[in-house]
Write a structure and sequence with these properties.
β3, α1 and β4 form a beta-alpha-beta unit. This protein is 61% helix and 14% strand. The chain has helices spanning 46-57, 81-98, 106-111, 127-172, 174-193, 202-215, 219-236, 244-265, 268-288, and strands spanning 7-15, 18-27, 32-37, 60-70, 77-79, 117-119. α4 packs antiparallel against α7 (219-236), α4 packs antiparallel against α9 and α8 (244-265) runs antiparallel to α9 (268-288). The chain has three domains: 7-74 and 125-147, Ribosomal Protein S5, domain 2 (2-Layer Sandwich), CATH 3.30.230; 77-119, no CATH class; 150-288, no CATH class. It is α+β, with helices and mostly antiparallel strands.
Length: 292
């Protein structure tokens, strides 16, 4: 089963006069990189949240955001007027000392300072409320995992098509090999014929041509590339997730064999096939970064 590292999960859980909304999104990353935005009264649960998320998501750049809404007008707020007055006096004194003009918009300025708005929200939460929040986080994580599984199925289909295309191109290579070898023989013979008064030992020439042609032989490269294609599909179909890094390594090995085919080909049609293989492989490499 293939899992993508890209995903999004959301849950909404009511608790008494409140409503928790938890959103989690993830992108590809080599390790787990978790950023959390948790309201102050619930930060004592942040470590537990991180452990829960890390245990399920394992890898990825993850953003956790928690919103807490108070329902039924149960929460009251008030401006902290004494504090706002102190801020204003300090601002005026600074303006006089530095010979600066006073601000034109006192409202926006003062509301930016910390603790200018008082709320009767409790700074301590009950065990039941904490458990409700953790439940909301768990639901969001599972929603994200479902999203990852859906994206993983799409990636699996994508990789299967790309591998099939490379295999089809590889199967077309043999039809050009006979012509390729003959062209090499003719080119060497023509080059020697242009050398005036050259004495040629035909036996030695044949040996050298065989040696040269053996250096350009691509049988092993074709076999290894075919094996890598099989191994990629075998890894893709594993029932346990976490194949991303292995698929990346296999793709690198496939690239080495395709590059060697290109360097040894000495044939225009074979080089066209190699270029098409490289195009398919680049698409694989780009998307394999998103695999768990």
């Amino acid at each position: 089963m293939l899992l993508s590292m890209t995903g999004f999960g959301r849950s909404v859980v009511p608790f008494e006069n409140k409503r928790f909304t938890v959103e989690i999104k993830s992108l590809n990353s080599k390790q787990l990189d978790l950023s959390a935005r948790v309201p102050a009264p619930y930060r004592d649960r942040e470590i537990a949240m991180r452990n829960l998320i890390g245990g399920r998501l394992e890898r990825g750049k993850v953003d956790l955001t928690i919103y807490v809404e108070t329902l039924s007008g149960a929460e009251t707020i008030a401006f902290n007027l004494p504090l706002m007055k102190a801020y204003k006096e300090q601002y005026k004194e600074m303006a006089r000392e530095l010979d600066l003009p006073e601000p034109q918009d006192w409202y926006n300025l003062l509301l930016r300072f910390p603790d200018t708005v008082k709320s009767d929200t409790l700074t301590h939460i009950s065990e039941e409320e904490g458990n409700a929040l953790m439940g909301a986080v768990g639901e969001a994580v599972e929603a994200l995992m479902d999203y990852r599984a859906t994206e993983g199925r799409k990636l699996s289909d994508f990789f299967g098509l790309r591998i099939a295309n490379i295999r089809q191109l590889l199967n077309q290579v043999p039809q050009h090999e006979g012509e390729r070898i003959e062209r090499i023989r003719v080119r060497i013979a023509d080059g020697l014929a242009k050398i005036p008064q050259a004495e040629i030992d035909k036996g030695r020439l044949e040996q050298e041509m065989i040696f040269y042609i053996e250096k350009l032989d691509i049988t092993e490269e074709k076999q290894r590339l075919a094996q890598h294609l099989d191994y990629f599909i075998e890894t893709l179909n594993l029932t346990t997730p976490g194949q991303g890094k292995k698929l990346g390594f296999i793709a690198q090995e496939m690239g080495r064999e395709i590059n060697t085919l290109g360097s040894k080909s000495n044939h225009a049609e074979m080089q066209k096939l190699v270029v098409k293989m490289k195009d398919e492989l680049e698409q694989i490499k780009e998307q394999v970064l998103n695999v768990m």
